[in-house]
Write a structure and sequence with these properties.
By secondary structure, the protein is of the alpha+beta class. It is built from eight helices and 20 strands. It has a six-stranded antiparallel β-sheet, with helices on one face. It has a six-stranded mixed β-sheet with strand order 11-12-13-10-4-14, sandwiched between helices. Helix 2 packs across helix 7. It is globular and about 60 Å long.
């Protein structure tokens, strides 16, 4: 679906808990350009945000050798390199002389202060200070590139359409989704080795830090690439022409270091990295400071007289007066079975003080990890708590995040 959204126009057209088994008829689900590649490689396809996507891979495909289970796939990503299909996410291209001003209205990002060909994580706030979606934004020479979540895509576009009608000015938006381009994430400590081999001498990756963006030729196919990802590892997201998607997918996989990875491994990896997932750690009623995302709000957005973003009258006071925040996202290490989303968090005396939002058994740490929202002051590090799993209380302790150290390339 390729649509163009301009001012005043209409828009045309976590492991096991984050994914639903495909109860909807498979034909009703949207498919990325490399869907058939997943099936051929033994992908266990599930309904994820209305898309038919691989949770994990099964079988004897050489592209999953040594990385077939979700845990093995996560470990492979941490030690070698894995290829993820993220084509279900929605890509936006903003143009017009007022595009940066508009994006500073509808996100908390400091677009004007962002360096050329640099990216930042941001959030799209609502009037109450809650989060409509989290998003990646990249400032290019002639446009601003943005990626939004698949499950929030149409909601985000409707919100932008409404705000464009109120904003005015010279702002245009081109929307590219699953049939308009391929979007792949190559993640892991050997991702840069693989990509350097693929781009040859045209780009020196050692000069591009995490968050940087560039255009490169891969086997005759021009791609827009950002050095980013959502695993805690170094890596790249590759936006390629739709006619090149299948070839480039196969071309990347032909490298010995690379294995396929699905949604299950991606969710486990982002939990180990302490990263939020919309609908779990983020929602329309949770503010960025409550989510531990105050750092996404640049200094220039906080000063008196700065152009206000939506929800600023709720969010900015929370930054100045932390007593306005009653509960916060925190990390927990727990005993017993992993505590999943929704599990109660209590004091050692049994008082309910929060709830889990995500949890799993970490393959890299060999222990249970999780995130949740806990009432202050029980969110302080080293606080002893309990989690309730299937009616039984198990010891837990508040800990810092990320659980596994991130390995972003800083140059």
């Amino acid at each position: 679906m390729l649509a163009v959204l301009a001012r005043g126009s209409g828009v045309v057209g976590t492991v096991r808990t984050a994914c639903r088994a495909a109860s909807t008829a498979a034909g009703d689900l949207r498919r990325t350009l490399v869907h058939d590649e997943h099936v051929e490689a033994g992908g266990n396809m599930v309904d994820y945000a209305g898309f038919r996507m691989p949770l994990l891979y099964k079988g004897d495909s050489p592209f999953i050798a040594g990385a077939a289970s979700i845990k093995d796939s996560a470990v492979w990503t941490r030690t070698r390199a894995s290829l993820f299909d993220v084509g279900h996410m929605c890509s936006l291209k903003w143009t017009g002389k007022d595009a940066a001003d508009f994006l500073e209205r509808v996100t908390v990002a400091d677009i004007h202060g962002l360096g050329l060909n640099q990216s930042t994580l941001s959030v799209i706030p609502n009037e109450q200070g809650g989060v409509i979606d989290d998003t990646m934004i990249t400032k290019c020479s002639d446009h601003i590139y943005q990626v939004i979540n698949a499950g929030c895509g149409q909601k985000d576009l409707d919100h932008f359409d409404e705000q464009l009608g109120l904003f005015g000015g010279d702002v245009n938006l081109e929307v590219a989704w699953e049939k308009d381009r391929g979007l792949f994430a190559l993640q892991g400590p050997e991702a840069h080795v693989v990509l350097q081999r693929l781009v040859g001498n045209s780009v020196d990756l050692s000069t591009i830090s995490f968050g940087g963006a560039f255009t490169a030729d891969i086997a005759g196919h021009v791609c827009f690439i950002t050095r980013c990802g959502y695993t805690g590892e170094d890596g790249f997201e590759i936006n390629c022409p739709k006619d090149s998607a299948t070839f480039l997918w196969q071309h990347i996989l032909s490298n010995d270091e690379v294995r396929l990875a699905g949604l299950g491994a991606r969710d486990m990896l982002r939990m180990e990295a302490g990263l939020c997932l919309y609908g779990f750690e983020l929602s329309s009623t949770i503010t960025p400071p409550e989510a531990g995302l105050s750092w996404t709000i640049g200094a220039a957005r906080r000063v008196e007289g700065a152009a206000p973003f939506i929800g600023a009258d709720v969010i900015l006071p929370q930054l100045k007066d932390r007593t306005l925040i009653k509960s916060m996202r925190c990390g927990l290490l727990s005993e017993g079975p992993p505590a999943r989303a929704g599990a109660e968090i209590t004091t050692v005396d049994g008082e309910v003080v929060g709830a889990m939002t995500s949890g799993c058994s970490s393959p890299c740490l060999g222990k249970n990890i999780g995130m949740g929202y806990v009432t202050k002051p029980y969110n302080r590090k080293e606080t002893d708590l309990k989690v309730i799993v299937r009616g039984k209380a198990y010891p837990a302790k508040v800990t810092g995040m990320p659980f596994v150290p991130t390995k972003y390339f800083k140059g």
